[in-house]
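Lecture 7, part B: from sequences to assemblies.

Below are the input chains for today's worked example.
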Amino acid sequence: MTMEFLNLKVPMALGGAHGKAPAGSTEGAGNRGRRIEQIALAVALIAIVAALPSLNIGYRFLSIAITTGYTAIALYGLGLQFGQAGIMSVGHAAMLGVGAYTAAMLSNHLGVGFWAALPASIVFAAIAGGLVGLPSLRVSGQHYIIITFCCCALLVICLTNGGKLTGAATGLDVGSIPRVFGINFDKLFNYYYLVLAALVITLGLVYAIVNSSYGRTLRSIRENEQLARAIGINVDLHKIGVFMASGAFAGLAGILQVYYLRHISPTLYGAFPSLYLALMVMLGGGRLIYGPLIGAIIVNFLPEVMDLNPVDSRIAYGVALLVVILLLPGGVSSGLLAIYRWICGRLFGRVSKAGS
Amino acid sequence: MEILIQQLVNSLSVASVTILIGMGITLIFGLAGIVNFAHGEFLMIGGIATWFFVGMGLNFFVALLLAMVVVGALGFVAERCLFRFTLDRPMNGFIMSIGLSVILQHVVVRVFDEFQKSTPDPLGAVWVVGDVHIIAMRAVVVVITAIVVAITYFGITRSRYGLALRASVADQATAELMGIPVRRYVTGVFVYGSILAGLGGALMIGLFPITPFVGSVVITRGFVVSLMGGLGNVNGAVLAGLVLGLVDGLSAGYGYPEWTDAYSLVLMIVILVVRPQGLLGGTLGPKAS
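Predicted structure of the full complex, as structure tokens:
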């Protein structure tokens, strides 16, 4: 029993292009079955989260769910960058900050509302993502991670010193989202559905990217950059591309965050939020499609479920991260997948073996 | 003119702490191949431990030594229990150290509180040279740092331990065949770097109050110093620490103080992009994975 479990786990821990871990392996025998599985899982998940508010779960739960939702959107960007292209960032909150501040500044200085600011936020965050990504063409590995951390610190300094333009240390306020088809987004339920819609779109896009030839290109860069370059892949272009995509998702998350909180200040986008984003991706696992979502759910709901105060819950995240990295480098999602495959293996025999 | 000299002395003492941090990181990153994001928290714990021991009625300098022991022990435990298992996957070690820094920070907040702590000025003396007033503690900090830098420099470049260490970095397999216990050296460097962080923290709280969240500021400066100087390069760390300290000190007096932190960050990003091996060259750190 144990042996079988280990056998299943090992290729996933390695996670390379050869295992069945990457959601993007469209080749292979059990492919059709797996696709049906995936679609069923996605439909079930969406049905569950869409039905949540009607279960009378209370405002507190709902607001945590909204936070989880937009955090997960940002995490999908980071997951794309880390899980697919293999470039980690510990300054990702800066991208959220660019998106959020774009929206807040447009609203405060030019009177531009949510819907018009939405594309602007996404575009500016994507540009910021590309700019922060530029040094990665020359600097790699841990050096680059440190650069991302510094970029984040720089942004916070700029925002704090921005005077009237950025509202300095106190930050900026925004109004409410204008009604569309009579839907009032001031109501928490409606905002929840807005975030949910954005999350579903994000999931769809990420799934499409991961399973496209572009996703395979990114993974080839992750696995062996020299080889990828040698077979004619424009590594530099693709790297910047994935940074921009990652930034775009963060921009979407940022504008959702600012219109949810109604007030933003530079500290929301500093070192700690960035570290927590990195932590969540690692916790959930960046390579599997539900990894970032699981990471966001764990980190946001854990204190609520276990009734921890903020200090204790942060200690708990830290410990959880250490345990996950030492024992389960693919993140919680890969562990869940291993358990799921193991159960399937016990139930149906050969099914799960087909892929390996 | 007096003000300029005073500013210089002040920035020199701040630069000293920065040099200690940068030197710890440069050794651990460049020679042991571990990026320890929790290094700033190690320093914070050094400071808090000093504060705690001073609060128990100990002399400041006894507390300083105890704080170094505490942080050294912490480094030993961290290396043996955590980083040892990620030596072949440095990226995982890096992420793990982020987790460690979050844990340490909040454990300190839990055990004590999140407010800033300070010790009374351990010497309480001001030396007057001409028209220049120098707070004695600041001068002592500079002297202690200079001694530690000298010990480290000669330890790395001249002693056989330093030689063995550099051999392990250059070619681990050959070094092992030559009978060098490479893993023990890795632990040793890690513990030594942690002790430096403990010393830095103790000296820092002797100069100004610190909070449990000082680590993230410190770590940024530490990375700036170690990467600017070149990893594993003690001279480089000292030079970069001095440059940074002077830029900070002088910009606080003459430039735009609110942008002080930005200068060093921009400087480092530019240096990393233009000269990834740092100003004076270094080991380039562990291979990126």
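Note for the exam: Confidence is low (pLDDT under 50) at residues 1-29, 352-356 of chain A. Keep this in mind when comparing with the next example.
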